[in-house]
């Protein structure tokens, strides 16, 4: 089997193709290769914010100003967002792109993370938000490319969930 | 001499002014299609009341996000001045945003705080600003050096004039009375967003 391209390299390529230049994030260990890649590439404006709500507000403002953006976070960060998704991104029809590193499943060692993770898909479903769980490197290109197109065309947010099946996740260092 | 040293050192030393009047004075000074983000609470009501410019964005929720939204617009359009109008209760909810603004060195961003010491729209419950918290000082501590209290209406206008021409980021804090706005923002989010995008040339 040929070596597959790592998910973060594919993500960088698709973001560039769709002119997604702004990346705001609250860090996560699994997202590190993507965060490092966007910092290293002058195409992107990338920076950390103090909260995920803030990261969403910045991406929303940038979209209205004509620049596409994405916010990166872990599951616990997504759990802080329902209010601003429901009162800003959705009603104002702003295609906020979100990428969540999935903690809390497939070998989680922290009970708090495991419980927070259970709230994520019910929240996304209750807001009727488009979301996709990425488990295989060979699907990353298709899912990101098509979903970014759809988000922009339908003026609706989309959330990409990076499963540990894709990223390896975070394992307990015993 | 630092920017702040020409202005009232403490919140108590600033004149208590009227939000609707200051909003009108601000809007009257905007001649270059500057973008204005009106925060939740009465900030956006008085912005609406000052005349419906297409470059105005009115928040209908997302308490605390006026500054982040304004920062996003400012990043997307570095040649345009962007103003965030935010209440004291709202900014106290998202103080980290001030550190982010400072860190980004957002030269074209102006934050105006309407500090009435209260969550006025929800019944006037006092905020921490009423007794202890000094938002202009907090912003300086967060790294926004050009942050100060407006002494009075004339001082406010001078600060705005400077902020519209010299590099920021700026934070202009104003003590505000308890008068209520006399108009209500139209609540049609898709329309607000579309008009705003056209108003700042992001859509034709
Ligand atoms: C997350 C969240 N918490 C609480 C509220 C309710 N709420 C709406 S406006 C407001 C007060 C805003 O206070 P301030 O920013 O000082 O503005 P003012 O009402 O004084 O104009 C509150 C608590 C809300 N909309 N969202």
Overall description:
The complex is a heterodimer of chains A (174) and B (204). By secondary structure, chain A is α/β, with parallel strands linked by helices. Chain A has one domain: Rossmann fold. Helix content of chain A is 48%, strand content 18%. Chain A has nine helices and six strands. In chain A, strands 2-1-3-4-6-5 form a six-stranded parallel beta sheet, sandwiched between helices. In chain A, β1 (20-25), α2 (32-40) and β2 form a beta-alpha-beta unit. Chain A is globular and about 45 Å long. Chain B is an alpha/beta fold and 204 residues long. Chain B has a single domain (4-199), classed as Rossmann fold (3-Layer(aba) Sandwich), CATH 3.40.50. Helix content of chain B is 38%, strand content 18%. Chain B is built from nine helices and nine strands. Chain B has helices at residues 19-28, 43-49, 66-76, 88-93, 96-104, 128-131, 135-142, 153-163, 189-199; strands spanning 16-17, 35-38, 56-58, 82-87, 109-115, 118-119, 125-126, 146-149, 170-176. In chain B, the strands form two sheets. In chain B, strands 1, 2, 3, 4, 5, 8 and 9 form a seven-stranded parallel beta sheet that branches. A two-stranded antiparallel sheet of chain B has the order 6-7. In chain B, β8 (146-149), α8 and β9 form a beta-alpha-beta unit. In chain B, α1 (19-28) packs across α2. Chain B is globular and about 45 Å long. The relative contact order of chain B is 0.22. The model of chain B has no long low-confidence stretch (mean pLDDT 97). Classes of the chains: A alpha/beta (174), B alpha/beta (204). Chain A binds chain B through residues 22, 45, 47, 49-51, 53-67, 69, 83-84, 86-88, 91-94, and chain B through 35, 37, 57, 59-65, 67-77, 94, 96-97, 99-100, 103-104, 189-190, 192-193, 196-197, 200-202. The site of thiamine diphosphate (TPP) has 17 residues of chain B, from α4 and β6. Thiamine diphosphate binds at residues 40-43, 61, 63, 87-90, 116, 118-122, 127 of chain B.
């Amino acid at each position: 089997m040929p070596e597959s391209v790592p998910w973060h390299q594919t993500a960088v390529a698709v973001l560039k193709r769709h002119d997604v230049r702004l990346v705001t994030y609250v860090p996560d260990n699994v997202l590190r290769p993507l965060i490092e890649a966007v910092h290293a590439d002058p195409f992107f404006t990338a920076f950390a914010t103090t909260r995920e709500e803030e990261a969403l507000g910045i991406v929303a403002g940038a979209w209205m100003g004509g620049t596409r953006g994405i916010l990166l976070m872990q599951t616990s960060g997504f759990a802080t967002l329902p209010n601003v998704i429901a009162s800003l991104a959705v009603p104002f029809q702003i295609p906020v792109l979100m990428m969540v590193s999935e903690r809390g499943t497939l070998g989680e060692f922290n009970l708090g993370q495991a419980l927070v993770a259970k709230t994520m898909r019910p929240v996304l479903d209750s807001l009727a938000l488009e979301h996709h769980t990425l488990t295989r490197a060979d699907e990353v290109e298709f899912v990101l490319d098509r979903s970014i197109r759809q988000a922009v065309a339908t003026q609706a947010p989309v959330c990409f969930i990076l499963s540990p099946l894709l990223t390896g996740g975070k394992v307990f260092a015993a | 001499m630092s920017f702040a040293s020409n202005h009232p050192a403490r919140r108590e030393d600033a004149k208590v002014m009227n939000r609707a009047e200051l909003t009108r004075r601000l809007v009257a000074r905007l001649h270059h299609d500057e973008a204005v983000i009106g925060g939740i609470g009465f900030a956006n009501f008085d912005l609406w009341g000052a005349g419906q410019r297409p470059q105005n964005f009115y928040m209908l929720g997302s308490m605390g996000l006026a500054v982040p939204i304004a920062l996003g617009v400012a990043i997307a359009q570095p040649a345009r001045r962007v103003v965030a109008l935010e209440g004291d209760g709202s900014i106290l909810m998202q103080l980290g945003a001030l550190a982010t603004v400072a860190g980004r060195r957002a030269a074209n961003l102006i934050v105006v705080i309407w500090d009435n010491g209260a969550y006025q729209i929800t019944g006037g419950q006092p905020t921490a600003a009423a007794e202890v918290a000094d938002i202009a000082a907090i912003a300086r501590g967060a790294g926004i050096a050009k942050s100060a209290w407006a002494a009075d209406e004339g001082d406010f206008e001078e600060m705005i004039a400077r902020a519209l021409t010299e590099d920021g980021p700026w934070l202009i804090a104003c003590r505000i009375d308890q008068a209520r706005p006399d108009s209500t923002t139209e609540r049609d989010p898709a329309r607000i967003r579309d008009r705003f995008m056209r108003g700042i040339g992001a859509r034709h």
